[in-house]
Amino acid sequence: MNISEINKIEKIGSFNLLSENDLGKITPDNNKHFAVITYNNTYAGEKKVSHRSLIIYFICADSFIKKIGYTNSTLTSATSLYGLGAMTGEPGPNRFCLHLEMYKLLKQGKKIEMYARWFDERFEANLDGVFIKDGKEKISSLLNAVDVENYVKNKFASSVGMPEWNLQEQSDGYSPKAKKLYAAYNSLEKPRIGEKADELFQEIKNFHTSYFFIWSSPFSILFFPILVSP
Question: Does residue 70 lie within any of the structural domains?
Fold first, then answer.
């Protein structure tokens, strides 16, 4: 589905390839940084991206929705998960693999952009008070983040189907190539620096090519060609 069909969304930024000079930097805790893309905030609207909000976000490739997610924290914290923050420390498999999938599409010349919809609507309810003497008391609250995300995803599932990257998260995951790179990342001794880290980073940079590797032992890397039809 094209992002133009979504109600009340705003473009907030884009993902871009890291420049050669910014690749493979050493972090303050003496680890190699394995990121190959970064997020660039371009939002100039009235919302505060650094303020806590309930937000449903959409990651798109050439305007077609690839992933739906949510945050009930800050938009800044959400965007960092898929950019530089996806490839350092102890990232989960979905973040790590999605970083690589976006990198592959960027190398193919596609535009990867992020859009958001703020759910600022509040509702009021009468609840039993904290103390017996309180009786019923009125509270005002935001919508529940998980419920809103499920509402949006269910609308997609019942009409056009779930976006590709959401489906991959729910099934066996991303490509075998991405999963092998994630396993290799986790197998590195800490701090993740030195010859083995350099070899792995080279494979990450080659993720968009027709080769993948199997981390067969602590001392060797085996390469296998993948035949790609024209």
Answer: yes
Does some domain include residue 143?
yes
Does 223 score more than 80 pLDDT? no
Q: What is the pTM of this model?
A: 0.83
Q: Provide the pLDDT confidence category of residue 13 given band limits of 50, 70 and 90.
A: very high
> Which of 53-57, 88-92, 114-118, 221-225 comes out lowest in average pLDDT?
221-225
Structure tokens at 62: 């050439």
**Domain encompassing residue 35:** 3-174
Per DSSP, the residues of the chain read -BGGGSTT-EEEEEEEEPPGGGTTPBPTTS-B----EEEEE---SSS-TTS---EEEEEEETTEEEEEEEESS-HHHHHHTTTGGGGSSS--HHHHHHHHHHHHHHHTT--EEEEEEE---EEEEEEE-SSGGG-EEEEEEEPPHHHHHHHHHHHHHHHT---HHHHHHHTT-S-HHHHHHHHHHHHSPSS--SHHHHHHHHHHHTTTSSEEEEEEETTEEEEEE-----
